[in-house]
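Course assignment 3, question 2. Fill in each field.
Student: A.L.
Task: Predict the tertiary structure for the chain below.
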Amino acid sequence: MAEAPVLDGGLSEPVPLAAQLVARLLEFNQWPSRMLHPARAQAVWTEQELAQQGRSASLDRVLHLRASRRLLAQLGSDAMPVTQLNAPALPLALIASDLQLLLVRRVGLMALGKLLSSLIARAQVVQAREDLGRESMDWAIAHALQWPESGWLHPVLQLQQGWTAKADLLGSAVLARSWQQAPAPLRRRADWSLAPQACELVLPETITEVQARTLCLSQLAEMEPAWLLLFPPQSTH
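Answer field:
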């Protein structure tokens, strides 16, 4: 029998993908504090709890248990667990934080590609190339999305300094759009994994949830194709 595919996912040793899926679904439903974006930490953790983190595994478990209970209480009736693997965008909502960062960076670069290709002033080109790196900038331009004109990008350009930060914010906003109309128990938990700015950023209505989800899934399929094989086809298209 063939061995189950494995994915590193930032763990000390590779773990079979099926086991990672079970673990991630459990965390998603019952331990949301473990998937919380760092920018949301101060709104969830007390200063004392933040100071106590990392002292021991048993203490960390207690701290996460408390924080997760507080988060789930915020959900109210939406705290019911997500159990259907065919739920919209679930493969995106469950990816590990390190893979999520790579995904949003990639999507953000694609969304910025058209704007990057239009830079004319030498100083702007040099600045963008120094920030992103020549390889990433060339890739972004080569894979530029043909989405609406760049006027809707102005909030991103104003909110973040540096092209890498702009790409991360924009990619995160597209990822948030990918599950925008998913059932509330999924959507609200998934939003916690992103910075508040990303969930609040207003994308044009012409960028639909389906477009955003299709884009993110296509990029994830190139990065970690085995992960998507664990989900029903309905959730990966």
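Instructor remarks: The first strand starts at residue 6 and ends at 7. The chain has 14 helices and two strands.
Grade: pending
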